[in-house]
Amino acid sequence: MVFNVVQDRKRFSHIITPLVMIVLLSSSFSPLIAEASTTEFDFSTSADFIYDASKISVANNQASLLSTTSPAWYSSSWAYRKKITIDHTKVSGDLTDFPVLVSTTDTDLKDTDNGGYVAQADGGDFVFTSSDGTTALSYELQDYDNTTGELNAWVKVPSLSSTSDTNVYLYYGNATVTNGESPSNVWDTNFQMVQHVDSAGSMQDSTSNNSDGTLTGLANIALMLTATSPDTNSHQGIARDSTSYYTIDTDTIKKYDSSWTLGTTKSTATTDVGDSTNHLGDGEIYNSQLYIPAETYSSCVAFSHQYISVWNTSNLSFVTKYSISAQAHEASGLTIDPTAGTNGTIYAVSYCDGTKIWKYDLSNGTYLGSISLSQTINQIQGITLHDGFFYISDDENDLVWKVSTSGSVVGSILSYSVAGGSFEGVDYTGGDLSVILDQGSGNKKVYTWTDAYKFGDVLEFRKAQYMAANVTLADNGSISFWFYPKSPFFNFNTMFDNSADGNAWEMWIYNDGRINGRISNTETATENKVEYDLDNLSGVANWYYIVFSWQRTGNKTLYVNGVSRNSNAVTWQTPGTTFYMGGGNVANTKADGYADEIRISNTQRSAAWIATEFANESATSTFYTMGSQGLQYASDKPTLQLKNPILFTSLSGFSESADTNGGDIRYQLSNDNGQTWYWYNSGWTVTTSGYSEANSASDINAHISTLPLGDGQLLFRAYFNSNGTQLIELNGIGIDMPSSSSSRSGRSSGGGSSVIVTTTSPLGDKISSITRRVSAYLSAPVKDPSILNDIKRDIIITIVELLTKLQSQSPR
Length: 812
Description:
57 strands; 9 helices; extended; 7-stranded antiparallel sheet; about 800 residues; Neuraminidase
């Protein structure tokens, strides 16, 4: 210590003399003043620690989990990624700017509300990158279902190799990012029109050309017959729950399991309802109860005693009934919306009056009014509710009609001819529309149609529907689409037409299964058509990928399922300005089938391009593989351990400075240079495993003073516990020891340059403070007497404390 004593030294000797005495005492008995020391670990030197360098970084005075670098992570704002590896053997040639279909259903890709990891319910946090993990790729999100993890996306891959696999990464798990999809960048200027099918009926062009389509005849609702039950000997209605089918005959209810094995039969249903009822209608299930209209019926001019009857689904026992006779309508079917009205609403329809739907309170059957239909539907047999619309069966025309809840009849969605039979009750559960069809004794079956699906929704053509878009075909180009011809084949099943007049630009299917395409204005046996017989492949009722390509001064070529099937010279005809899918020339027969993914290009696509499109779209599961969910940080609890021990005889504290972001750090200690590791559990215990037998810094701190001495060589091991999305950062560790255990200062030679030992002493700090104040006082130009008095007081107190401590440490 150095004092800046100035001219009037004698004047201040009464301050300096006792202060010198303090200094001499403190230097002579420094062990008494140095009450404790703290060993600090600042992580400035990585060589001082043992750790997995692929998972943990020790640099810049911090130990932290290391972000994945192989390849680099797109951004720390995204928590997860999956690697998509495109099989080069499915790529027919090196291709540039190729839109790859990524189509999968993956539980990881559900949103967080449904047990998955996608942060936004609309998939707005999806990002695709190239193989480097950081270069974002343009993509279009066609469909995403947050409840199932179903994803259909088109990703523009800059370079697709036929000799080595191509990798793409899908990132997700960012709750705040704005949706980054860019459809118009996926479909470059070589595309004139790209039409995906939207179940809402909006045929929007995904290119920047705005060649949007319009639908005629509700072609957007597409259903495909997928199942037929055995004979049920039931005539009136059908209802379903998650495990069973319930069929309703005139006076009998039957319960079947999911494989159509008959379980319970209630053959006295009308008797149980009573009041001379003799006729049941189409029913609905709600809250484990089956609701069925019942009445006395002989004709549309002789009916009475209308009821809503309620039955237990478990054993078909009768529960109760509500009279609806006061409204004097025949009751052929009902459906239920538990969210409508105050208590839920039952909607009833009539076979004899197709002008309205009647409403009743779900809790007690009270009449609530009616909904007028925008057009009459005759001979209504059943009604069901699905996705906010009513679906009503029409026995007169063998149709199912889609009707809004306000009564607007949108159009028919299903036509199935039942010659000499009845088109009866209807149920729409999930994506399955079921209708009970009575086609005579031994043939009363439930037919089930499923939402037709290829890459999302599809168009359905039923010989009256078509799509039109304003497109003028280029001199060189390609038209591609997927088509499913319904059974049976029939003559002139028109797939597309772009003729200016006549039949110059069109494609159709004959009744023998031959596809024909032409650019010609003649219809002779010798015209230069391109054709192919689908019976050479799988025949009727299957999906086919069709491509028609041309050069104005060259050939036109027909591809089916990625293979060139026929090619002929072009006799050029000026195309029209409207492209029709499923129809065209008013004299032509319209299509009967399904279509999806309709594209027009202003370039003649190569054979390699077309073959790769088919490989990708026909079997995405073999075109690429999607890896397991990748995490930004290690989630296997990697460890960091001090390499060289510090010597101790006793310990008094343990602390950490860390940012764990929702994860945590736990510790184990060794008192014998790593031979034995301990944790605290009502007493220090030898560990037998890792993280599960480790403790937080606060727990260690609470009990470290009782750690056994062992060899007196202390090590610590830290476990970095992250779920893979949490960045763990350890900024420092401090270990406190009484002065008798350690009195080193400066950087520790035992622990390396990351280890700093500092000595702490409340009494020593007080002496240093007094010394600084005396120096400042002596050098001040104006001396404040009050400051001098404070210094004198503190000197006296400090001398007393020092002498007291000396006396307490002296041997008796």
